[in-house]
UniProtKB/TrEMBL annotation:
It comes from Bradyrhizobium huanghuaihaiense. This is Acyltransferase. It comes from the Bacteria.
Length: 255
C-alpha cells in the first residue's frame, strides 16, 4: 500500500525527543480517588473559579514545600546524585493547535506555591492562546528543537543530567490531564521525576489522581503520604483561597 510521507513538525519532533529522554526512567505509579467535597463547594461559590490544572499545580507545590523529596531530581553528571531544588518548578502540559495540528507544549511555572492561585491560572490560560513567540518557555524549547539532531541530543543531555539545569529545563514536577476531553486514567511519560494526572469529578464528589515518579528518587510509602496530604491541601488552603476571592455575584431578578 502506497501512502503519503509527511514532514515531522517541530511540536511533533519535540514529543519524539521527549519520549527518547523518558525511555530510561524507572517509573512507578500510584493512584487514588480523593474526596474533594470542600474544594468543590468553595469553587462553586467563587466569583472567578480557576482551572483544575492551576489548583493541582499550586496544591502539589504546597505539599512539596514541606516534603523536600518532591523537589529532588536524579542527576547523572558529574556523578550520579540526588539534587534537591530550593523551590518547586512546575511544568504544565498545554494542549494547542498550531498550523492546523494538535500538539502539546510544556509551560514552566516557577515557585507556584508562592504565587496567587489566580496568577497560576492566568499563566496556564495565556499559554493556551498566546502566540508561541510570546511565551518564553515555548520559545526556548522550540529553539532547541530546531537544532540538528546531534546538537539536540547534546542540549537534552545537559538539561537532563546536571541537577541545576534539570530544574531550569524540566522542573521538579509536571501536571498533565485529559479531563477536559472526558474521563480516562492518563499515565503520561516525561523525564520526571514526578508527574501528576487527574480525571473528571465523579458524582460522589471524588476525583481520581495518579502520581508517577522516578523510583530512583523515592519509594511508594512517601507518595502514599503525599496523596493524603494533597487531598488535605486541596480542601483547606486551595479552598480557602478560592473563598477569599469573593462570592459569586447574585443577579437580581425583576418581579
Amino acid at each position: 500500500m502506497r501512502g503519503t510521507p509527511k514532514t515531522i513538525s517541530l511540536p511533533r519532533r519535540l514529543i519524539c525527543d521527549l519520549m527518547r529522554a523518558s525511555m530510561d526512567v524507572p517509573f512507578v505509579s500510584l493512584s487514588r480517588s480523593l474526596d474533594i467535597r470542600p474544594l468543590l463547594e468553595a469553587r462553586a461559590g467563587a466569583l472567578a473559579p480557576v482551572g483544575w490544572a492551576a489548583m493541582f499545580v499550586k496544591a502539589f507545590a504546597l505539599v512539596a514545600r514541606d516534603e523536600p523529596v518532591l523537589r529532588t531530581v536524579y542527576a547523572k553528571w558529574p556523578r550520579p546524585t540526588l539534587y534537591e531544588l530550593p523551590k518547586s518548578v512546575a511544568t504544565v502540559a498545554i494542549a494547542r493547535v498550531e498550523d492546523g495540528e494538535e500538539c502539546v507544549l510544556p509551560q514552566r511555572i516557577a515557585a507556584p506555591e508562592a504565587l496567587p492561585l489566580a496568577q497560576v491560572d492566568a499563566e496556564i490560560r495565556r499559554a493556551k492562546t498566546a502566540p508561541i513567540e510570546d511565551i518564553p518557555m515555548f520559545r526556548k524549547i522550540m529553539r532547541a528543537t530546531r537544532l540538528p539532531l546531534p546538537l539536540r541530543r547534546l542540549s537534552w543531555a545537559v538539561g537532563l543530567n546536571f541537577g541545576r539545569q534539570r530544574g531550569n529545563w524540566f522542573g521538579s514536577f509536571a501536571v498533565s490531564s485529559v479531563a477536559a476531553y472526558g474521563g480516562g486514567e492518563l499515565h503520561p511519560i516525561t523525564p520526571g521525576p514526578f508527574i501528576v494526572s487527574y480525571g473528571v469529578v465523579e458524582p460522589d464528589q471524588t476525583i481520581h489522581v495518579v502520581i508517577r515518579w522516578d523510583h530512583r528518587v523515592t519509594d511508594a510509602a512517601p507518595i502514599a503520604r503525599v496523596l493524603t496530604r494533597l487531598e488535605q491541601v486541596l480542601n483547606t488552603e486551595i479552598a480557602a483561597e478560592l473563598q477569599g476571592s469573593g462570592p459569586k455575584a447574585i443577579r437580581a431578578v425583576r418581579t
